[in-house]
């Protein structure tokens, strides 16, 4: 065994090496290259229209004929049509080929090609056959003059003979042959030659019925060929055709229904065979029609040969062509004004709704019903009578039930139907209103999206056009507010609010040249929100106080979206003006203030006369109008300080109107108002304040900016909250619980982060801050767990002291006691008082800690809002000298805060300032900066702040602030560089002498800036 040699991989069993096997890729390469070259060479035959020879005697002739018929079956339309044109010309152009040649091509090539399933053979061969048949038996009538042996019957019989399945062949090959027969027969019909002589059509009919009888699955295609021939028929021939169908036992079939409708549409007074359809769509026939069409989704492969009545086979997912014919019939009738709506409604209800969607209908029938619904929806979208009757009762019940749960058998079919509804409405926005009325009406459900667990209504509402906005809003309001059932009124009111909220997000339409601006859909929805949320009409059951409260919440959420864009301010203010003034009870003083505020709001909204001065005041006027609207809304919502805010706004209004007061006083009052608004946890107030501040940035003064920056140094504790909001009464007693509690709460929020490495990229600051916040949250959680354990221990100790006892698990450590005497009543009362006091102290301490934590969160949120203001200011007023005064307070804020998110945000404001300045300089805009000595003094202040916080974030912010000042001074006066360099040298020398620690990146970025100036003097 040990000496046995393994046979090599390339050796045979007897040790003889095997021949090397070619790689498949090489074989493909060797074959494909010549094949491609041959294909290119063969295309030259597409231009060769010489007549085909009698006999194929040369290789070139055989190659040419083979190539042309190969191209005739190509899937490429151009190649196929070019080949068809060449073959027809080579056979019939000029004197044409001899009869024997034409017969050979028909018999050996064209008829046999119809039975081929290769690529697009049937399509290409049908084109050539149709043209040949037309020239043989049509207007040219070549069969009478040139090809006398190729009679109609001879050609037809040849077709049937050459496409007849013979021998033991597979089922697919058999179907291919029968399809070949069917395509060949259709060529005769398309050639428009079957009605010149009566016998021709009879022969065609016999062939079609023979195929239909032999291959039941192809019966619908056979009848479809007959339907295509109806346009060529005369009345008598049509009557005979229907009689033949009836005699074959096919009258009560879906395809026969289609044939009857097409024939009767052409010949209204036609004499139909007895015991068949007089009119399939007549009311008397609908019962029979429903039973016939219910099986129109079956594929009939299993019929018994010779049976007079058709048998039904397996079900097919492909919808029968009869439904296209029925839809076309109703659309054609509607154009004639034949009372189509009533007739269609009766047909749809009796046949489709009660047939395909009844309780006893099978799943396959319901599936077909959804396909029928989709076909009529898409095909009849432009017909009002179709849309008005399509959403019938049983269909809607089935649709909602099947769409609601994923495990339902027809869930996918139902969701596909819902998607079809959305698509049709998207393509035809005029259908928004009628479709909504159907889905939310009697047959649907007002909470349709909830019932179906879809977003159908939401998506439909997004396609509402401004011209239909009022009608859509009226429709959804009428459907809910007139709900008689009290138990549904509240839930419907909630859904109503959601629909209005979705409408407020509909984007405004782009105006075409010459069009006038209409009220936007969102603006109209906001007005409806205002009417309903503050309605004083008690006659509508859906508008309960609970519903109104919910609507007001959604109204506030909708308003918060409108304040983000200045172009939406008018809609915002108009909604406030439209609120019913009697909807909220007020005393005379409040009523008077409200009326005065509404008048001022209307005054601010009036467009001023065009002038340079009014252009400058437009922004502040819009901002003040928005602020008035918010204050009025607060008054309606009975906010406690709404009256005080209105009083402050009066001063701002008077200042803007008369200019008697200074900008400093106006901006200071405005900042105080804005700070009072952002202190509230409201998205609307926050967004409104930001937009108002953005409108007034040009009026900000050093005093008003200082009001903002002073808040950044407030302690993040109860004491800081008291200082910011002057809440002495509320804060009494809380200070006692501060000290160590604050340390417990805040100690883990920020780490010293003193690692002397390069700074991270500024763009990652926000993400890094979020990650650090997550870490802080987990740290806080651990601290709270530790506090809980400590609190429990303190409680145990207090109880043990009062009860003079201990826990069971402390028996080993406890002193033994022989005093087991019972307590007296007085001792029991005394013990009860002591226990009560212990628990009171416990609750008081817990409340203090909760109050301290809430106070801290309030101050932090307030600082976030102030930093939002400063971010807006540095972006809009980057060229204003006052923006430089924010740098040092922002650095000091980073030092004072114990919250990483605040520190990160302050750093981002400084970076935004730097980016805004860079944009301004790139546009070569004039920049209003400081004087040289002011720049240098500010630079000294920044340098003084650098060592106070050694964290990476602070170093990055300080370095950025430093470069802002340096680049601004250098941009203003390049000769100031020696002064800047000297100041840096003094700072570094001082730090070295005093052994002051600092981040080395501060100097590294200064060096990088200097190098950039050497390479590009204008880079400052």
Automatic annotation (TrEMBL):
Feature: compositional bias, Basic and acidic residues: 806-815
Region feature Disordered, mapped onto this chain: 1-36, 728-791, 805-831
SUPFAM superfamilies, A to Z: ARM repeat
The family this protein is said to belong to: Belongs to the MYBBP1A family.
InterPro entries: ARM-type_fold, DNA_pol_V/MYBBP1A
Pfam family of the protein (one): DNA_pol_phi
Compositional bias of kind Acidic residues: 728-754, 764-789, 816-830
Protein name: Putative dna polymerase v-like protein
Gene Ontology molecular function, alphabetical: rDNA binding
UniProt keywords, alphabetically: Nucleus
Protein transport as UniProt keyword: no
Subcellular location: Nucleus
Nucleus listed as a keyword: yes
TM ranges: none
Native source species: Phaeoacremonium minimum (strain UCR-PA7)
Organism domain of life: Eukaryota
GO CC, alphabetical: nucleolus
Predominant cellular place of this UniProt entry's protein: nucleus
A Gene Ontology biological process term: regulation of DNA-templated transcription
